[in-house]
Design a protein that fits this description.
This protein has helices at residues 2-28, 39-44, 50-56, 61-92, 98-107, 113-126, 133-157, 165-169, 174-185, 187-202, 206-211, 220-226, 235-256, 265-271. 27% of the residues are buried. Helix 3 (50-56) packs across helix 13 (235-256) and helix 10 (187-202) runs antiparallel to helix 13. It folds into two domains: 2-48, no CATH class; 59-271, MetI-like fold (Orthogonal Bundle). It is mainly alpha-helical.
Length: 272
């Protein structure tokens, strides 16, 4: 009895999670949806991909898609590079005031993001980077690198220092140790942070709207808002655009999930 009950709860939970996603897909391949269609209408209506074609060519969606792809990819690569080197310095390099500086570094995590918008805009404006991808990427990196550094520092500190001895004997320097030991053993953590960095930038709306003024340079979340009318929303187009916006997130997860291996890899390498 308990086993049946557990299965029922599990099925209901899966349906609760997957149901809205399936409804979104079915609506996106159904025409004439100015209101949310009933499940019966979705099942009985003719299926077509015309909404995807129209959404791709409407409201500069394709251009905004490419813009977001560039901004998110650049942010992910630069943010992870900076976080890895910073975390390595905090984990393995002794220097005066290290712990105080690290705690001060982490303090910014407790400041609500909405409070940072005006100071960030002021700084970007003083640098002459308003309405540029450089300014937007710089802000994205500054907001994400702190959490990534905190996470990676703990991961680096778990890697035994005994692994460094063979490289030191062969005349390797700190950079060689970092590249040959810390990066390969930290790929699970880096992969996880890569997903968060890309997805967090991909669907960010407020900063992109604040810093980017030129219409041709705007990013995808702004394009999605254009599919929602003031008085009516064509849900077929809106859901089709949303599904296409979801594809890069799924692709990034598929790419980085290969790195999700045994977290005790470093301990095993010492024992071997």
């Amino acid at each position: 009895m308990a086993s049946w009950l557990a299965h029922i709860v599990l099925i209901l939970g899966i349906g609760f999670v997957i149901g809205p996603f399936v409804y979104m897909i079915l609506t996106s391949i159904t025409t004439d949806n100015f209101s949310l269609p009933s499940p019966q209408k979705l099942l009985n209506s003719e299926k077509t991909l015309v909404n995807y074609v129209e959404a791709w060519n409407k409201n500069n969606f394709s251009s905004y898609f490419v813009n977001s792809l560039f901004v998110s990819s650049a942010t992910m690569i630069l943010s992870l590079s900076l976080a890895c080197t910073t975390a390595y310095a905090f984990a393995r390099f002794p220097f005066p005031g290290k712990e105080f500086l690290f705690k001060l570094f982490l303090f910014s995590m407790f400041v609500p993001a909405i409070l940072n918008i005006i100071p960030q805009f002021t700084i970007i404006k003083s640098l002459g980077l308003v309405d540029t991808y450089s300014g937007l990427i710089l802000v994205y990196i500054s907001t994400g690198v702190v959490g990534s550094t905190f996470f990676l520092r703990g991961f680096f500190e778990r890697i035994p220092t005994e692994l460094e001895e063979s490289i030191v004997i062969d005349g390797g320097n700190r950079w060689t140790i970092f590249r040959a030991i810390y990066i390969p053993l930290s790929l699970p953590a880096i992969g996880t942070l890569g997903i968060f960095a890309f997805s967090g930038t991909w669907d960010e709306f407020i900063l992109a709207l604040t810093l980017i003024k030129t219409e041709a340079q705007r990013t995808l979340p702004i394009a999605l808002q254009l599919f929602r009318g003031q008085y009516a929303t064509y849900y077929g187009l809106f859901f089709a655009a949303s599904m296409m916006a979801l594809m890069p997130i799924i692709a990034i997860f598929v790419i980085f999930q290969k790195q999700f291996v045994n977290p005790n890899l470093s301990e095993g390498s010492v024992k071997g």
